[in-house]
Amino acid sequence: MLIGGITKSSLIDYPKKISAVIFLIGCNFNCPYCHNPELVISNINEPIDINTIYSFLNSRKGLLDAVVITGGEPTLHKSLPEFIKNIKDMGYLIKLDTNGSNPEMVQKLVENKLVDYVAMDIKAPFDEYRNIVSKDVCIENVEKTFKFLVQNKTDYEFRTTVVSNLLNYHSFDKINKMFKKEGKIKRYFLQKFKKSKHLNEAYLNAKTFTDEEFEKVSLLFKDTVEEFMVR
Prior knowledge:
By secondary structure, this protein is of the alpha/beta class. The protein has helices spanning 37-40, 50-59, 80-88, 103-111, 130-133, 139-151, 169-182, 211-218; strands spanning 3-10, 19-24, 66-70, 93-98, 117-121, 155-162, 185-192, 225-230.
């Protein structure tokens, strides 16, 4: 388990809960706008010792409600179930952030009641994925995770980071049609691209949609998503 960082208290990463956020090193995607490039390219000289994490979480019992496991891509770590179980045993709720590329791991975590909430990135319509992830990943696996979450009882959200040179109105029309095939989607959030540090430095000058473009796209999802938000 390679741990690259921790946010000791957050009010925004787990819905309506106070959480700590743990960042795991490594990712199998190469999204150019990624704002955690050091986790993707494993450019962290001294990972945090796992016992330091356990000690911190033990000391915050009663002060924190939940722990968010993010990355990178957490599901690449084979020891993830054991890591989460140890944290769950302390009494914490667990939220998993994932790109959906490892459906077997997500299913294992859900079926063993090791996660309480899953946030999955929908990078694009499935037929446009490789334009963004920049690697020859198995898109069928991403689709499997998407369908599993919709059909399962675990709480979830889907989210898409909106970069205007990578996605357009027709991209979201295809995502909406993808949603319709599965019935009502619980939550879908569009995230405005914000300038930060990025995997591809060219994206320091990238843009997100205008307010008018977000409004137009939002109308697509009024009948397919129970809770929709641009954030």
